[in-house]
User: Which sequence fits this backbone?
């Protein structure tokens, strides 16, 4: 359980986190999302006790992490991959970290096994790939068998197999009743893993919702219709609040807003309109995320703004 | 804490192993000892500082028979056999800066501070294990340098045996000086949080400052030079106590003041700054 209360963090003139409050609950994977520079890492550094808050506070299991007698057994954190001396072996790295908290060496072998590094445990960590470095970082987060796991961009640098592995691991950890808090700047990475989303931009909270509610936050649902008779379509569906727009590129494709797909189907059948396709358009979480954070993106690329079009095929 | 934490979410409890104990100065010191031993350059480097002291001591003793010693303050054979300290202190300073700076460079320091929120414990642990190992190696090296160097020395300077007044003290202080340089290196490493910057400052303080400060006019230059760490170290290792140096025990006091001042500053910086 992580609680962040009215947290503000300033670095000189820059406000990295601005009056941020949220609670991360046990038993589920909570995704912490926001564009680059939104303040995710700063928030995590404060939770880990590395940066002092300018105002407000962050607690783990009811207390600031620094006030726990054995922080490793409360919170397992991963801030950056390959935070290891390049000439030290993975096993020695973990043994040293374990020693701070009196964790026995057998637990080191256990976590090496969990992350699949047991066979390279005696190799210098400098020879590890980024993905292996991430696995070692996750091993260090698991060392104290903590009730809360907090990972900053853990998917970075992992190959597809590694990404699948980490998704399953996070879900397992949550299913065991742990609090799992994972940041990412890409919704596509979190959409399949997280059950709850905390989205921030420019240091402020944008939304704090379960995945199902986030999916409903998209713009009004559209229905794609393909028919050679556009004029007839408009006549049959014409009503208050119903909008029919053409596709622009394909002359036989139209988008309808304001009617559910079953009503549209019934009316077109009654009106005798030849129909080639009728598809409800689902807004992806990615698109919703882009829409929510568009105003908060700090570094726009010139020309190509993130598109919030709802016309992408589901 | 060894307790199993009940989650505030009713009905869900984390089934956890009983792992770990409260973080103490002793447990952090053990962790730093593992870190020190597990990187080969630390072990080889500390050993080479001691070996360098012996090899150069023998070399200087074999060829040196005038008062133009490596540091210009050689008045007797004891100072001559410890001429290698100039190299040893450089090796020790660089290693100490690396021992701290490499953790900042890789980001490991943030993992360490996440596990050990009382950061001064990390400072003390690194200081204890690194300076302890250095002190031990340099003490052995100092005895070896003294006996081997004295054995080959055939020059005109006053020659001493270990029983002569002040000689045992000078040999023991050579090891102590090595440990103090290690402590200065650790403190500067934590203050600057960068290996390169720390090495630069250490070279400036230990090697360049004696030359540059000596250029200051009149007695100011002489007085300031005496209280630099390297000159305080020379005083500690000197048997004849020339006017250019403090007395051995005063030199020791001055060096301790440097060490305590720098370590205290590093401790304050660690407590106040974000990691």
Assistant:
């Amino acid at each position: 359980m992580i609680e962040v209360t009215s947290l503000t963090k300033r670095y000189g003139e820059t406000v990295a986190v601005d009056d941020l409050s949220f609670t991360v609950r046990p038993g589920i994977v909570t995704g912490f999302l926001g564009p680059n520079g939104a303040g995710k890492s700063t928030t995590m550094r404060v939770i880990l006790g590395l940066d002092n808050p300018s105002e407000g506070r962050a607690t783990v299991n009811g207390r600031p992490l620094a006030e726990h007698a054995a922080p490793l057994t409360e919170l397992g954190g991963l801030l950056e991959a390959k935070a290891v001396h390049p000439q030290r072996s993975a096993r020695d790295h973990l043994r040293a970290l374990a020693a701070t908290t009196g964790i026995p060496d057998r637990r080191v072998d256990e976590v090496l096994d969990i992350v699949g590094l047991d066979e390279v445990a005696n190799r210098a960590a400098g020879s590890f790939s980024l993905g292996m470095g991430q696995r070692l970082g996750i091993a260090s987060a698991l060392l104290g068998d903590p009730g809360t796991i907090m990972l900053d961009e853990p998917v970075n640098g992992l190959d597809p197999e590694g990404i699948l592995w980490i998704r399953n691991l996070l879900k397992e950890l949550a299913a065991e009743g742990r609090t799992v808090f994972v940041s990412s700047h890409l919704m596509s990475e979190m959409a399949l893993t997280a059950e709850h989303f905390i989205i921030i931009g420019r240091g402020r909270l944008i939304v704090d919702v379960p995945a199902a509610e986030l999916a409903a936050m998209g713009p009004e649902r559209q229905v794609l219709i393909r028919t050679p008779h556009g004029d007839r379509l408009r006549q049959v569906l014409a009503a208050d609040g119903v909008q029919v727009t053409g596709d622009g590129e394909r002359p036989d494709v139209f988008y309808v807003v304001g009617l559910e797909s079953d009503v549209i189907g019934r009316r077109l059948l009654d009106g005798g309109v030849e129909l080639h396709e009728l598809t409800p358009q689902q807004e992806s979480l990615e698109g919703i995320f882009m829409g929510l954070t568009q105003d908060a993106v700090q570094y726009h690329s010139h020309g190509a703004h993130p598109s919030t079009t709802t016309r992408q095929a589901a | 804490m060894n307790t199993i934490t009940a989650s505030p979410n009713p009905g869900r409890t984390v089934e956890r192993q009983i792992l770990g104990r409260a973080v103490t100065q002793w447990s952090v010191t053990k962790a730093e000892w593992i870190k020190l031993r597990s990187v080969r350059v630390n072990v080889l480097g500390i050993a080479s500082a001691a070996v360098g002291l012996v090899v150069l001591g023998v070399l200087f003793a074999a060829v040196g028979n005038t008062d133009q010693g490596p540091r210009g303050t050689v008045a007797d054979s004891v100072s001559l056999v410890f001429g290698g300290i100039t190299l040893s202190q450089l090796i020790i300073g660089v290693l100490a800066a690396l021992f701290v700076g490499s953790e900042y460079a890789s980001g490991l320091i943030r993992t360490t501070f996440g596990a050990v929120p009382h950061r001064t414990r990390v400072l003390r642990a690194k200081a204890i294990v690194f300076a302890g190992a250095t002190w031990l190696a340099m003490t052995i090296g100092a005895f070896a340098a003294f006996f081997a160097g004295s054995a080959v020395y055939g020059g005109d300077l006053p020659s001493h045996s270990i029983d002569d007044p002040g000689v045992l003290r000078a040999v023991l202080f050579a090891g102590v000086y090595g440990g103090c340089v290690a402590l200065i290196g650790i403190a500067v490493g934590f203050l600057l949080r960068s290996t390169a910057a720390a090495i630069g400052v250490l070279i400036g303080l230990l090697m360049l400052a004696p030359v540059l400060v000596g250029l200051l006019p009149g007695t100011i230059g002489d007085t300031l030079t005496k209280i630099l760490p390297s000159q305080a170290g020379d005083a500690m290792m000197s048997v004849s106590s020339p006017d250019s140096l403090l007395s051995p025990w005063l030199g020791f006091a001055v060096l301790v003041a440097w060490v305590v001042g720098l370590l205290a500053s590093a401790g304050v910086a660690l407590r106040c700054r974000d990691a």
